[in-house]
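quick one, 261 residues, struct below
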Amino acid sequence: MKLPEGYVVIYQPKYTVPSVFDLNDCGFFSERPKVSGEWGFRIICDKDCRCKVQAAMLLRQPGKDPDTGRSYEWWVKEAEIALDESLVLDPEAVAQQLSDEEMRSAFITEFNAWHDNLVPLKDDAKVDTDELKKKLAALVADAFDRRRKDLVRRNQHWVLSNIPRRVHDFKYGLYDHVRGNLYPEYQRNGGEDSEDNLVKKIALFSRVLDDCYQEGLRKPDGNTWKNEDEVWQCWVGFAGSEVEAQRVCRTMDAVFRDLQL
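---
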């Protein structure tokens, strides 16, 4: 089940419920999709703290793997259930999406345990929505940080190997045309890093986005990005933070755009 662009996972049971999101890389199953559990769910959220449930169930019905095209006697049914600002489930939506009573009961029990542990209440037992948004924002920020670090770890082998050459080419090429404007513009945007590190970040930006505009979001190492959001999040990981990534982009836009006039 794919993660929508702009969303991160803020909760997924690890011990109480086997998860169909964890793919079985060993490929033990010849007659059903490569999943490690009968069903599972996770809570996902975007930067605006809009949350929803993603659930997946392994059913014994003829199906086909959407990625490989291979046919199975089993298939994974996917479901999404929206949550309101208090993270409350709609019972009708749950009943509609999770028709199996035993599965639905286990899901509600696990979800309520997570919900009751997270959602703060006021003295009048009403949900403290302001405090909840702060908690969710912290969870989302942490999830994005972990995702970016993982993207850096998985892609640094082809990104970093090319940076010395790009830094050299930049310093002895384009840099001569922007030497007087580049670093001052970065500082005007609030940048505090050194000029050498700014040049390195520009090289990192160029490398991460190499060829990604082509069909299939191709990576220089022959693999592909999942979507445009993954490209951006990887660049943010190398930049250090989203604020810094945006600052470097604004600096490049302001300085390099003038060269095209």
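The longest strand covers residues 51-59.
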